[in-house]
Each structure stands twice: as C-alpha cells, then as structure tokens.
C-alpha cells in the first residue's frame, strides 16, 4: 500500500502530462468551434428576397415545408471561398436533388445579382441578410457556412468553410442522406 | 532643428497605435454608464473569427456587429447577464473568455485546488512523520557515560583524563 503511495505523484504528473500531450498532438483542430445548434430547432429566420433577383426570400416555415432535409448555405458575392464551393453546391442541387436555400450575408443587392447571374443560381430560395443579424442568430463566424436541416426543422450538421474536395462533399451528402434525402435515380 | 522635428514625428508615429481602438465612434452610446457596461461585457466576449481577441479590440466585421448588438440590447433594458446569455445561446460557451462554472467545467475550475490540497496533505503527512522521529530524540547516556561526563565537567584539564 505504501509503495503505491510513493508512486502517486508520478502517476498524477503523468496523467496531467498525458492530457497536455493529447491537447498538443491529438488530431483535432482547436480553432474549430462546436456549434450549439446541433440537435436543436433551426433559429427563426424571416428574410426578404434579394431585390430584383426573382428568387423568393427565406423564412422558418420554408425549412420544414417539404418535410425533407434542406441545405442552408450562407454566402456572399465578396467571399472568395464561396465562389469555390459554388460548383459543388450547384452539383448537389442538380444531381442529388438537394433542396438548397441560400442566405446572402451582408451583401449589396447589385453585387449579389451579378454574382448569381455570372455563376448560375442553384438556390431555390435566397434570404437577403443585409444587416448580418440572421448570421448572428445562426451563430456563424463568417461565410461560407452550411447547415443541414432535417425535415422536422432540427439542425443536424454544420460545415464551416467552403465545401470543396471529395471529403467535404461526402460529409455533407452523408449528413443529408442520414436526414432522409431522397436522391433521383441516376 | 530638422533632427528635433523628425524625433518628434517618430515619437508621435510610435504613439499613434495607442489611439487605434476597435470600438468605432459611431458605436459609442451617449449614456456613459451604458457604454461602460457595454465595454465591460465585450471585454469578456471572444471574437469568433479571430478567436483569441475580445470583440472590444477586434476589427472583424462580426465583432463590430456583436458590439452594436450588445449596445442595442443594453439600451433595450437587458441586464449584463441577459446579454451574455443571448450570445451564449447562439455561439456557445466558447464565446466567453471566462468559462462558466458548471458540471462540464468542474474539472477545469477545481483541479488546481484539488492538486494544491493533495500536495499540501502530502507535505503535511511527510512533515509529521519526520517530526515524530525527531521527538524520539537521541538515546540517553548509560550510567558509565554519565559518570565520565560528570568527571570531565568537574576536571580543570579534560585532556589529562582517561
């Protein structure tokens, strides 16, 4: 018994050191912020359409209207990574039957319209979040950010940054499938 | 003369960054009390983009939005805690520099005290043990030694003895 007590300080030191080492070398990104939204109903949203764009605006009711998962993507014309993921989002909407809603974050209407005309508009609905308040409601730290919303309006997945590359696309697709995405037979 | 002027200019230039505060003039509230509360709150709110900077000093767009939002809520009559709760509901505890005390963070807050107490207890036990050994003291002299000691003490010339 006494022998074990002698080793106690060593054991405590190793435990603390091991914890610190885990913090340093473990395969995790400390700048990744866990979202508080996961597993909770999507925050209320009531956004007007981008003026003169012709795409309808976005409100909370739209998120659950179809009873199927939707992808909510925060984007802006001034955001370069948004341009990078635009092709991926377009493909998801076109080939995988994903319902894609956009939130145009802190953007000028003219710029947003031009951007969507140039690149194409894959969004079924776009809310114009000119003030950035919807972004705060959803707890985003910047654009692009993408949320997978289940048919019952619960947020099931959050992706920070551009969805580019096979891994990112797979991550979004599997989250959508898990939420009950019905893909068109190809 | 030109050297003096350039020296003054260099010093002025060096002091310039001290004027640069992220809180922009148009954000500042007319009511100094509310403004002071807003500053105190935003000093403890993390900028979610820069992550290691409070929104007080951050130039990020979202930090400015959050500063304005905090002031709006204060003007609407929110307490400091209500403002913080509003932010935590959207960004999680991560947005606070000072993590709240709750079951998930008990280890974080209490570990230093636990370790301190354990170390203190260890030292206490160790000292008491060595202390007990000391009170036993050195062995007493036997009668022969006592007699010899007495002789030495009485004698004028100890060296001559024995």
TrEMBL record, chain A:
Stretch forming the signal peptide: none
Keyword Zinc-finger (UniProt): no
Species this protein is from: Jhaorihella thermophila
Transmembrane is among the record's keywords: yes
Domain Thioredoxin: 36-181
GO terms of biological process kind: cytochrome complex assembly
UniProt protein name: Cytochrome c biogenesis protein CcmG, thiol:disulfide interchange protein DsbE
Primary location class: other
Family: Belongs to the thioredoxin family. DsbE subfamily.
Keywords: Cytochrome c-type biogenesis, Disulfide bond, Membrane, Redox-active center, Transmembrane, Transmembrane helix
GO MF annotations, alphabetized: disulfide oxidoreductase activity
Gene3D superfamilies, alphabetized: Glutaredoxin
NCBIfam families: dsbE
One term under GO cellular component: outer membrane-bounded periplasmic space
Cellular localization per UniProt: Cell envelope
Transmembrane residue ranges: 6-25
Classification via Pfam families: Redoxin
PANTHER family: THIOL:DISULFIDE INTERCHANGE PROTEIN DSBE
TrEMBL record, chain B:
UniProt keywords, alphabetically: Cytochrome c-type biogenesis, Heme, Iron, Membrane, Metal-binding, Signal, Transmembrane, Transmembrane helix
Membrane-spanning segments: 106-127
Extent of the signal sequence: 1-22
GO cellular component, one term: plasma membrane
CDD domains: CcmH_N (cd16378)
GO MF annotations in UniProt: metal ion binding
Topology term for the membrane: Single-pass membrane protein
Chief localisation class: membrane
Subcellular location: Membrane
Region (Disordered): 134-162
InterPro entries assigned to the protein according to its UniProt record, in alphabetical order: C-type_cytochrome_biogenesis, CcmH/CycL/Ccl2/NrfF_N, CcmH/CycL/NrfF/Ccl2_sf
Highest taxon above the source species: Bacteria
GO BP, sorted A to Z: cytochrome complex assembly
Gene3D superfamilies: Cytochrome C biogenesis protein
Domain CcmH/CycL/Ccl2/NrfF N-terminal, residue spans: 11-153
Pfam families: CcmH
Function text: Required for the biogenesis of c-type cytochromes. Possible subunit of a heme lyase.
Family affiliation: Belongs to the CcmH/CycL/Ccl2/NrfF family.
Protein name (Swiss-Prot/TrEMBL): Cytochrome c-type biogenesis protein
